[in-house]
Amino acid sequence: MSAGSSAAGAAVGLALLAGLASGCGSNDAPAQGAADVSAARQFKPFALYYAGPSFEELPLTNGGGDDVEDSPRGPISFVYGTCEPEPGAETSCAPPASIQNFPICKENLSRYRGRARPRMLSLRGAPVAVFSDGSGAFEKVEVFAGRTTVALWVDDVETAKRMIGELEPINGRRRGRRLPPPPRGAVEGRRPACGD
Question: Which of 36, 55, 70, 153 is the most exposed place for a label (fewest CB within 10 A)?
């Protein structure tokens, strides 16, 4: 994440790190081989999107397995690369890139009432919200694909756009380049709560 990311973004990054079995290391390779994605492939409640086994030379270091077992209603996270804290900094740090998958009924624009409205784009046929923190610095991107909200935690909008270009469902089949549209009203939170 960029230095301008909000405290909320930093908290998410720290939460993601708590799930990494390998701890912090270098950006070059996963500490214990390729990430296990078998639990994510078998996950049924909603589609899970990831950017493949690597993203821009960053290996997939967390394949969502712990999240699937601990919290089947999300978020389910995929982490790319590892990190090494700056000397004298906190004991943990945010990975270079991560993806969180939520059911769209739990993560949508209704959660952000009272904040500046995100800038909206359309990429690969899906609505995309670009969020900034209180100072106007890039925070994250959310992609609304079918019944899934895909949050991308990367350094900048251009990296997020490239990552969106690589998104594919790990627990379903890809249907061409377009992502599935969300249900009407789901992006704004005008749909029933999860399970209703």
Answer: 70
